[in-house]
Structures are given as C-alpha cells and as structure tokens.
Specification:
2 domains, six-stranded mixed sheet, Creatine Kinase, Chain A, domain 2, EC 6.3.1.2, 474 residues, Gln_synth/guanido_kin_cat_dom, Ubiquitin-like (UB roll), 14 helices
C-alpha cells in the first residue's frame, strides 16, 4: 500500500483515529493514537516521535528520542474502539533515519535477508499454532506480607459442586477437553467470533477447537506465511483474542502453565524453506518424505535448542509446562507424527509443498519476531555445517518416549529445566545468531540482563505460598 491508499482506506471507512503500534523487546504492544484529520501522507512516510526510555528493553532516559514509522500493508480497521480507528504496525527508527537495532521486527527482517543472501532459499514459511485459556475470573497479588493467585472458569472441573443457580454440569474433566461438542464445549460461539474478527482483519483462519485442558483451553490456527509477516499476524492474533474475550467478560491468557495438574499451552511452530515455488524440505521416499536439507535444519534447531529456548520459551512459567506427562515436548529428538518429540514431521502432509517440520517446544509468551528468527538462524546453521541429526543422537525415534525404559531415556537429551538454564545456554551459545548481523551481542546481552533483572531475580526473592505448606512446621 501507498500513503494515498491508506488515506483512501481511512476515508472509505470514516476513520476518525489512527493507532500507531510498536512491539517492545519482551513482546508487548504499545500504541499512540492520532486524530485522522492530523494524519497526512508525510506522517505516513516519516512516522511519529515517541519516548524510547518508556519502552521496556529500548533506551535509557538520556537518549530516548525515537521514531515509529508505519508499515502500510498492516493497516486494518480496528473493530474494538467506540469510534472508527485504523491500526498500523510500525518499525522503530533512530532520529537520524537509521533502523533501531533493538527493534524486534528489524531482527526478523534481517533474518529473512540473511536467508536470501546465503542463497539457500528465497523464503521461509512459518505457521504457529497458538493455544490459550479463556478464564472467567483471574485474581492475584504479590506483596511483602502475602501472595496468591486464583483463576476460575464456568467449565472448570473444580466447579462440579458449585452453586450456580442452577449448576448445569457438563464440566470439562482434566485432560479431557480435546474438542467435545457443546454443551461441554461452552466456548464455541466466542471462538467463532474471534475467527470472524481475525478474518475481517485479513488473517486466513484454518480451524478452531477446544483444547485438552479443563477451564477453557482453546486453539485457533491461522494460515502460514513468511517469517516477518507471520510474526505480524501473531501479534494481531493475540490482540484480537484478548479483545473479544474482554468484550465477553473473559480473560484470555497465553501463559504456558496457568493450571497445576493439567495440560499447558504451547505454540507449535511449523517451518519450511522454499526456493520460489519449489519446496526444499521435500524428498520422496526419504524418512517422513523430508530432504537432507530438512534434516540439517532439524539438526541445527536441536543442537542449539537450549539457547533457542531463551527466546522461544522466555518466561519462568514456560518451564512449568516443559515437564513429562502433559504432552509437553521436552525430548530433543525428531520423529514422524510423534507428539512427544521436540520436532515432529506431520505425516498427514498430502503434497510436496505441505512437507514441513513442527517445532513443538515453544510457547506464546515469546516475542514472535525473536523466536522465529532464532529458530531460522539455528536451522540455517545446521544447513551451513551439514549437521546430521542421527549422528548427533537426535533420532528419529518413533516410539512413545514416555514409555521407554530408564536406560533408553538416558540416551535422549532434554530441554533445559528452567529459564535460567536457557539464558545460561544462550550466553554460551549465540555465535550462530550473530551470523549476517541478524542479532547483535548488544541485543543478546540486553535480553539476558533484562530477563534476569525483571523476572528471574524478583521471583527468586519472593516466598512461594507452597513453601508455607512445605516448611512452616520445620
């Protein structure tokens, strides 16, 4: 789109306000709103100024002036405001007109450029499957004298005996929520509304259904696209899911493990490389019909997985999901159709272009621009070095890994057991991310320090409610 196209779109939809939006380093969106009558072609080309020191992970206060420039093709009419409003994703620039190195979207763009410079492929396709919960009530507090959290859902198993005036039963049992029909599935209509809003915003939605856990777990899948475009779509997806939920008096959360004792929420990421229209991951007759290039890519991801998880599973809560027994892909192996492996090869692929890998470990607390870029860079490192996943001990394994003998399990590498372990792995293994100038050492160490200072250390300093049960009487 051109600036004139955007202005015409605004006129056609009687737009009164324009939202300029950016994504901070952890992955939260921020916006500034400008009356439509003040938005000109010049503003759409040159952007608007903002205070970078107020954005987490960006600038300090003495060097805070920054510019956000809209990406015109991301324009959509936001249906959630009281007056017609146009939303625009933006890139972040220095005041002198150069791109800002810590802008997550810039890193994604550089990853795509690096792929093309290598001459391996023209583009990479990414297709995430985001799972989330829709709760009816969420309360929490963490102060010096106490801490608690409480969640609730009308379909939660723990509410079978609650007086609801009347209680109509049909609660979802633990681990029994994988697409039952209504009335057990209470959220069919709200998911459908989310799908319709996603489609109006330009996303191609493939399916939606209830997920395995009790208390309102859901999944809505949208169509794959190129790396940066898919990251844009992921941010828009999360925004629309939250807004529709809020409209219905519910809270949408992409936390990986909000419920103890039931399945968590992941973000399985399907990936493939193409040279024009030619699928590079396909080889007829090979294991899972994948090519040697795909195997090298798999080996790269699994080799660097502990470091990649610092971006793809970047929260302390992420590692409460990554435990055996809840369909969590903690095993660093690949396999055909096996959902207990970190990388699965979907064997239901019906054409060469549909052949892909599925990295099942990530979750949606990740910043998609950073997570997808880290995965691509790890895979490309495997291709450049011609790594062999079998020689490296990554399989394939076509058995249920959770049912292997103790001796067999000891031969399988696992993901880190904590966020701190992943950050330490990133400290020790990040050269592959620096190739082509995609990530910088400044960004990587800024990420590590930010996560330790704002998440890991504050959590480690606080007593946990369960510690009182464990230790009060000792």
């Amino acid at each position: 789109m051109t600036p004139r196209d955007v202005l015409d779109l605004m006129a056609k939809n009687n737009v009164e306000m324009v939202d300029f939006r950016i994504v901070d380093v952890p992955g939260r969106q921020h916006h500034v709103t400008i009356p439509a009558v003040e938005v000109t072609e010049d503003m759409l080309e040159n952007g608007v100024a903002f205070d970078g020191s107020s954005i987490q992970g960006f600038r300090s206060i003495e060097n805070s002036d920054m510019v956000m420039k809209p990406i015109l093709d991301t324009a959509f009419v936001d249906p959630f405001y009281a007056v017609p409003t146009l939303g625009l994703m933006c890139q972040v620039y220095e005041p002198n007109g150069t791109r800002y190195d810590r802008d997550p979207r810039y890193i994604a763009e550089k990853a795509e450029s690096y792929l093309q410079k290598l001459g391996i492929a023209t583009h990479a396709n990414f297709g995430p499957e985001l799972e989330f919960f829709l709760f009816d009530d969420v309360r929490f507090d963490a102060s010096s004298q106490g801490a608690f959290y409480s969640i609730d859902s009308e379909e939660a198993m723990w509410n079978t005996g609650r007086a609801e005036g009347p209680n109509l039963a049909y609660k979802v049992k633990n681990k029994a929520g994988y697409f039952p029909v209504p009335p057990t599935d209470r959220q069919q209509d709200i998911r459908t509304e989310i799908v319709l809003e996603l489609m109006k915003a330009g996303l191609r939605v493939e399916r939606h259904h209830h997920e395995v856990a009790t208390a309102g777990q859901a999944e809505i899948n949208f169509r794959f696209s190129t790396l940066t475009k898919t990251a844009d779509n992921t941010m828009l997806y999360k925004y629309i899911v939250r807004q529709v939920a809020y409209k219905h008096g519910k809270v949408a959360t992409f936390m990986p493990k909000p419920i103890y004792g039931d399945n968590g929420s992941g973000m399985h990421v399907h990936q493939s490389l193409f040279n024009g229209d030619d699928p590079l991951f396909y080889q007829e007759g090979g294991y899972g019909n994948i090519s040697d290039l795909a195997k090298h890519y798999i080996a790269g991801i699994l080799t660097h997985a502990p470091a990649v998880l610092a971006f793809s599973n970047p929260s302390t809560n992420s590692y409460k999901r990554l435990v055996p027994g809840y369909e969590a892909p903690v095993n660093l192996v690949f396999s055909k159709g096996n959902r207990s492996a970190a990388i699965r090869l979907p064997i239901a692929s019906v054409s060469p272009k549909a052949v892909r890998i599925e990295f099942r470990t990530p979750d949606a607390t990740s910043n998609p621009y950073l997570a997808f870029s880290a995965m691509l860079m790890a895979g490309l490192d495997g291709i450049r070095r011609k790594l062999d996943p079998t020689e490296l001990g990554f399989g394939p394994i076509d058995k249920n890994i959770y049912e292997l003998s103790k001796e067999e399990k000891q031969q399988i590498q696992s993901v880190p057991s904590s966020f701190e372990e992943s950050l330490a792995a990133l400290e020790n293994d990040h050269e592959f991310l620096l190739e082509g100038g995609v990530f910088s050492k400044d960004f990587i160490y800024n990420w590590i320090n930010l996560k330790r200072a704002t998440e890991i250390e504050p959590l480690n300093l606080r007593p946990h409610p369960y510690e009182f049960q464990l230790y009060l009487d000792l």
